[in-house]
Write a structure and sequence with these properties.
By secondary structure, the chain is an alpha/beta fold. The protein has nine helices and eight strands. It has an eight-stranded parallel β-sheet with strand order 1-2-3-4-5-6-7-8. Helix 5 runs parallel beside helix 6. The chain is globular.
């Protein structure tokens, strides 16, 4: 399988970036997007694009993960817009809601950060990369409310929910990305969603170094392993692996406009 793009990885969390990039080349990848989890470390993400080459593109996103909003100063919309000016920055995020590790006291800060990142996406025209965990109803409510203020492109990354969230996201024009979770034996509901998402809204990712797909479970994940998730997505949808590569890469270029050749 060739021509794949890993739409979500964390190169800053890998022990050996050059080695990971070599695996990516051997796996036939065209590129990857390294995603920020702390706005205070945005320059680190931007710096990682120094590995960008004509045969293996490296882009980045900047933002603060919901798990870190209590530890990070919330940037203003203007700060997000200014930091996103370089062409290597192709998205805002990741941002969103995560109630798995936090209680009710963390919700106001997560909501405020999520809305600020959305406003940054609306202002720049860049997509916001959304992390949502055990927060489907509030994620849907905020997306609908913010969409009423003006459209913005967005992606639900590492989809880990059921059809309710998927249907709401698609209704609002969003995209959905599938990670190694798609290959896990107990994740049948995720596979059910993967079979029904429209062809023009599908993406694949690793979320590396996390969530290594079958048959790489138990090992640190790396962008090249996105090929295993893409192969499983092809199996679930009854199409060829090359077709999935073609579809998902076209969708990356449509959603992340700055990645276009």
């Amino acid at each position: 399988m060739t021509g794949l793009i890993d739409s979500h990885c964390h190169l800053d969390r890998l022990d050996d970036v050059p080695a990971a990039l070599e695996i990516a080349r051997q796996s036939g990848l065209d590129g990857m997007i390294t995603i920020g989890t702390r706005f205070s470390q945005a320059d680190t993400q931007i710096g990682l694009t120094r590995f960008d080459t004509p045969d293996l593109r490296v882009w980045c996103a900047i933002g603060t993960h919901p798990d870190h909003v209590g530890e990070e100063r919330l940037p203003s919309v203007e700060e997000l817009v200014r930091k996103a000016e370089p062409s290597c920055v192709v998205a805002i995020g990741e941002s969103g809601l995560d109630y798995f590790h936090s209680g009710d006291e963390a919700k106001p800060a997560q909501h405020a950060a999520f809305r600020t990142h959305i406003a940054g996406a609306r202002e720049t025209g860049l997509p916001v990369v959304i992390h949502t965990r055990q927060a489907d109803d509030d994620t849907i409510a905020i997306l609908r409310d913010e969409s009423g203020k003006g459209s913005f492109p967005f992606l639900i990354h590492c989809f880990a929910s059921g059809p309710k969230l998927a249907e709401a996201a698609l209704e609002l024009g969003g995209y959905i990305s599938f990670s190694g979770l798609l290959t896990f034996p107990k994740c049948e509901e995720i596979r059910e969603v993967a079979r029904i998402v429209p062809e023009d809204r599908l993406l694949v990712e690793t979320d590396s170094p996390f969530l290594a797909p079958v048959p790489k479970r138990g090992k640190p994940n790396t962008p090249g392993y996105v090929a295993h998730t893409a192969a499983r997505l092809a199996q679930e949808r009854g199409v060829s692996a090359d077709r999935i590569a073609e579809i998902t890469t076209a969708n990356v270029h449509r959603l992340f406009a700055r990645t276009r050749p």
